[in-house]
Structures are given as C-alpha cells and as structure tokens.
Design goal:
single chain, 2 domains, BirA Bifunctional Protein, domain 2, 7-stranded mixed sheet, alpha+beta, binds phenylalanine
Length: 339
Amino acid sequence: MIDKIKGHIAEVERFNANTKDEIEAFRIQYLGKKGILNEFFAEFKNVPNEQKKEFGQVVNELKTVAQEKVNFLKEELEKTQEEKGVYGDLSRPAEPVEIGSRHPISIVRNQITEIFSNIGFNVSEGPEMEDDWHNFTALNLPEYHPARDMQDTFFIQTDPDILLRTHTSSVQVRYMEENKPPIRTISPGRVFRNEAISARSHCIFHQVEGLYIDKDVSFADLKQTILYFTKQLFGKSKIRLRPSYFPFTEPSAEVDVYWGLETETDYRITKGTGWLEIMGCGMVDPNVLRNCNIDPKEYSGFAFGMGIERIAMLLYQIEDIRMFYENDLRFLEQFKSAL
Ligand code: PHE
C-alpha cells in the first residue's frame, strides 16, 4: 500500500498541464471528495497499527505534493496568459490620457485681448487676403508712397490689387467703415511680410492692433492705456515713448517698456539698456479718419500695434521665432499649465 502511495507521489511530481480544465481534472482526481487522497484516508483504519505512522506520513506527503502541484500549475498558467496578453499586467498604471495644450501664440493673444476687453475693447477680425485700399491706400499710403517699402508685401500675381495683409490695421479700416464712433476695438490676426526667415523674423507672424476713436481723445489717453496694458501683461510700470513715423498716425511713437537690468538675461535681451521695444502707436491721422467717413473735426483717436511673437518670446524667454511654427511637441508641451 505504501509503495502504491509513493507511486502516486512520483506520478504527481511528473504531472504537467497546460489548460485550466486539465488542472481542475487533476485536482478532482487527487484532492476531490471522492479523490485518491480521501480513499487513502478512509483506508487508514484498516492499516495495521505498526504501519499507521509511516502510512500517515506518506499520505500527508501525497496531499502536500498534490496541493502544491495544483497551485504551481495555476500560477504558471496565469503567468503565460499574462505574457500572451490575455489579462495584461493588471498592476500596470492605466493608459495615460494626454492633455493637450494651447499654442503659446494663442495663450499670449488671449491674454492681450483679455486685458483690453477689461477696459471696454471688443475684438474685430477681417480677411487675411486684402485689397490695396484696406491695407494701404485708406491708411494714408497712396500708390507710390515710399513708406509702402517698409512693409515687404506678398502680392497675388494675377491681381495686383489683391495682397496678403501686412498688418491688421486693415481690419481697423473695415471696422471704421462699418461702425460709428465711439470705437474701441482690437484686431488680433495673422499677417504676412516678404522677409527672410531668421531667428528674429518670419514671413508669417501675428499682431494685435488696437483702435480708440471718440470725441476729445488725446495723446495722454493713449499713453495711459498703454501704461495700463504693460502693467497688466508684464507687471512693469515704467514706459517711454520715442518719436517715430507711421503713415497712418501723427504724431507716432515706439513704446519701450523698462524691463530692468537684474539678471544676465535682462542685459542680453535689452542689449544692456534695460529697455525693450514692444509696440508702435500714435494718434490716427486725420486723412485716415476722412477715408473712413469719420469727421476729424468732431472725432480723434489713437491706434497701436504689436507683434504677438515678439511679446511671447519676451514672456517665455524663447530665443528663436521659428520655434512657434515647427510644431515640435517637446516645445509645445511646455505650455500645458497655461490657459
Ligand atoms: N501697423 C503697424 C505695423 O504693422 C503698427 C502700428 C499700428 C503702428 C497702429 C501705429 C499704430 O507695424
């Protein structure tokens, strides 16, 4: 009898199975209610006393070996199923859902429009393909005016009257044609200039231009509005206006913001002066108002315009304007936390 049990032990040890059913059949065969083990246990009372001890030990050994075999085979089966991807690794973290991010140009554009909408400016938009009137002539830039050269223009070859807008001042002309003062509007949008592409300039970029027209609008209003803007956007409260020239404004100025000279970067980006140029501005030329059917004797106004890329480069310390258009995820992913 003991030899028979030992034979079973050897058999259990040799046993192998690849499916759940095989393992279950094996378990029932040995460990089930009517299984081999229980048969031996039932036999116990018939075993002669002097053999009882050895018999007990061998039967218990068979029980342990069978139980361990079943556990081992079950684990093995799960492992191979996992490897085959039946369950996958259940302890792995879930597939991460990637959160997108806004483009830095959109972030800065939204910030600028928000700042101006808080003081009553609305947002106006217009076509990227413009006619000569809205981009040039109405803005006091008649044909052959030398200042047209300031803005290297892409013309549409088949029609010299149609071009890609070189600034969003064209939207302001459209807005004045369609609306009566008081006017407070900003025009964000994409503009085009035939310039060589480098780290500093691109042939496609974005602008926000602003226009304010009402009775008795003065240069002081312009200055105060821009000061408010620079405080809001940069947290800087020192600006200076340098005399400049634009055909559509008179007088005209370039706005510099005092950036500071605290860090090495400050030195580098301000070329050691502490000042940074951020936009152009001026009082709307009476000719422009007249071109848009607004009486310059009754109304006056100011306008300003800035490049979004330039401001984004300052805010985020971006060294190369081309980064904005390359759609490199390593660059874009850095703006995830911003709105
Ligand atoms: N339109 C000018 C440009 O594109 C900017 C500007 C707008 C300057 C309004 C003065 C007033 O450079």
